[in-house]
Each structure stands twice: as structure tokens, then as C-alpha cells.
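Issue: ligand-bound run for iron/sulfur cluster - logging full I/O for the record.

Environment: standard queue, default settings, no custom constraints.

Inputs:
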Amino acid sequence: MHKDASLMLLDWYDDFKRDLPWRRTRDPYHIWLSEIMLQQTRVETVRGYYARFLELFPTVQALAHAPQEQVLKAWEGLGYYSRARNLQKAAQVITNEYGGVFPKKYDAILALPGIGPYTAGAIGSIAFGLCEPAVDGNVYRVASRFWGIREDVGIPAVQKQIRQLVKESIPPDRPGDYNQALMELGATHCCPGTPRCDLCPWNEICDACQEGDAEVLPVHEKKRPPKQIDMAVCLLTMGDKIAVVQRSERMLNGLYVYCLIEEENEPNAVLQLMKEQGIDCRFVKELGEAKHVFTHRVWNMKLLHYELQSPPEGMQMVTREEMARLPFPSAMNAAVKAANQLLELK
Ligand code: SF4
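Outputs:
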């Protein structure tokens, strides 16, 4: 690596970094929260959630002791709810095992629930000045271009090589700023597709820029397309109430949904399937369609309204006001809207 490359990047970062709320603090709780929220979510969206979350749960202890439903409600709309559940689990570990003080050693940070090498590196370097790399998708892209790594970045050995190169390039006096500078470069100039090499502090020493193949880096092997799943979202009403179910499987754990019937969305076939499950109802009408794309699957949903003859077992009957207090995954956004309209008419 060019001997001044790290310093060139830091100079650029000092001059051009965006002013973000979590960059004004070295509080590990705040940095951790921002890093978790920023995974899969845009900076502009995170700003509001970050401020509200810290108002609701100002300390690690407050988060540890809050009811899970309140935490999930505060996360509503951000998606990937396992992040919120793990955040709270880790807050409980910090409270119970570390007396509420965030651990300062890299291995101890890495051992907390929901914290992988990237987040541990980010917290360790920014809050505690540890010389650990924080390599996320953005940084893999920047690094593979800068060092000219032209192998598939999905391969663990290639990822290890990149993490090592980044680690060796960290200036010992400013590891947190350097990691953030790499992320900033990936977010602003060294973006997917065509990078803005003309604005980049590294353009004269970057391998891909010099070779002219930055646009095709990093190399990714082809991903399998997500699985398409037909899904009936059954809005089962009775008077001014609607049936909801709290899910417990990994992806939706703790969140509420309506009665979901997978792999079928023709109203009468769905009615038959519900009857087999002991749900006694009659079809009223179709309320529209919705689609939600998860990482590995797509739900093609049909929203169907049925009137219940009796409350179904294993579900809760809630009013519109009660429903408003429950956390729903964003996959249910269209259904929640339709359910509100149905209950409003009652
Ligand atoms: S010169 Fe271009 S490809 Fe290289 S790091 Fe900068 S923006 Fe990325």
C-alpha cells in the first residue's frame, strides 16, 4: 500500500465527512445502536429512529429492562427485527454480566448477541480506539477496488484477505476515524456501479481506477433468485375486532401478523384450508394485493376479508386501538392499512 494512503483518506474525511448525530459521540451504546440501525437501512431513515430510540431507552439498562413489545414497536418500519431483539438481549448481557458498563475488549464485544466482526470492529475502533477493521459490504467494495482484488468476495478466504489488508492499513492513532472514512468513501464516491473516481482522494493510487475496471468490482458470483411464495393474508373480523397472531419463528419472532395461509390465495381454497384448521368464517371480499421482498423470499400477498362466526383458537381478537399498539413487520403494511379501514367502518 502507498505509505501515505491512509493519511490521504483521513485528510479527505476531515474535510468532507457528513455531520451525523452518531459521529458526535464516543458513547459505545450510541455507536452500537447507530451501527445496528444502519445495517440495511439508509442514513436519512436512521436519523429519526436513532433519536426516538435514545429518547425511549436512554441507557443500556433502560433498554435491557424495557418490555420487548415496546422495543419492537420503536423498531417498527426498520425491518429485520432480529436486530432489535438481539440489541435488547445484548443490553441484558451488558447489564447483568458487566454491571451496565460496555465491555472494552474486542472479543468480549464480539461475543455479545447480534454483534459480528463488522459491528465489533466499528464499536471497538470508534468508542475505544482499538485497531480492528470494520468491513461491511461498502468497505469490501472499496477495498477490492483499491487493492485490486479480483476474486469473488463471497469466498471466506477472500474476505479474510481483505480484512487483513484493511487491518494493516489502520493508522494506530485514529482507527475509528479511518474505519469511518472507508465507510464514508464507500457510501459517497466509491458506490456500486460507476464510482466517482474523479472526486476520490485515492484516484491516483487505486488499482481499479488505474486499471479501469472499478465498475465490475467487487466480483460476486451469481446469487440464486429469491423464492416466490403466494400468500393469503386473511383479515378475520368479528364486530369491531380483528384476529391477530404473534409469531415466534426466527424472522418474525415477537411480531404480530394476521392469519396467513401460505402457497394459496384463491378465496374459496383459502376458506377450505382455514376450515380444516377449525376457523369458522365466511368470505366477504378481496381487498387488494401486496408484495414484500425479503432477502431470500418474496411474498405475493392477496388481502382477503372474512367474517368470523366465532373467535379462532390460538389468535387474539383486538380492536383498532389495541392493534395500533402492537408491532407488525413491514410486510404487513398494506394489510394493516386495509384492516384499519375495515375496523373504521364498524
Ligand atoms: S479511485 Fe475510484 S474505485 Fe478507487 S477507491 Fe476511489 S472511488 Fe473507489
